[in-house]
Amino acid sequence: MRLANNIRKREKRETKDIARIAKKASSNAIRNAFSHGRSVTVQQGKKIVKLYPNGHTEVIMTIENISVMPEKRRYQL
């Protein structure tokens, strides 16, 4: 039982580490794109939107039947 608990704790810690690394990589990629005058395309809820370096947002499409709703998080650069 202790081994199983230790494995779960390690997996939970690894999951948090992966999420932290992914967040940092995403932020760096967006910052890099914006610094070169490029837009980025992301999912916000049920919409696919294009974000521009000047702050303009353009809705590309709305997803009708979405099977997985992403968490509502938006990170500031």
Keywords for this entry:
3 strands; three-stranded antiparallel β-sheet; 1 helix; 44% helix; plasmid; alpha+beta; 77 residues
Rg, alpha carbons: 17 Å
Cα end-to-end separation? 43 Å
- Annotation field: number of helices: 1
Mean pLDDT: 85
Biggest sheet strand line-up: 1-2-3
Strand content: 15-25%
Poorly predicted regions are: none
Which outline best applies? elongated
Q: Secondary-structure element order, as H and E?
A: HEEE
Number of domains: 1
Please report the total strand number as a whole number. 3
Helix proportion range = 40-55%
Keywords: Plasmid
Give your account of this protein's structure.
β1 (40-44) and β2 form a beta hairpin. This protein has a three-stranded antiparallel sheet. The chain has one helix at residues 2-35; strands spanning 40-44, 47-51, 57-62. With 77 residues, the protein is α+β, with helices and mostly antiparallel strands. The radius of gyration is 17 Å and the shape is elongated. The protein has one domain. The termini are far apart. The longest helix is centred in the N-terminal third of the chain and has 34 residues, at 2-35. The mean pLDDT is 85.
What would a concise description of this structure say?
This protein is α+β, with helices and mostly antiparallel strands. It has one helix and three strands.
Secondary structure layout plus pairing:
Layout (H helix, E strand, L loop, with lengths): L1 H34 L4 E5 L2 E5 L5 E6 L15
Antiparallel strand pairs: 1-2, 2-3
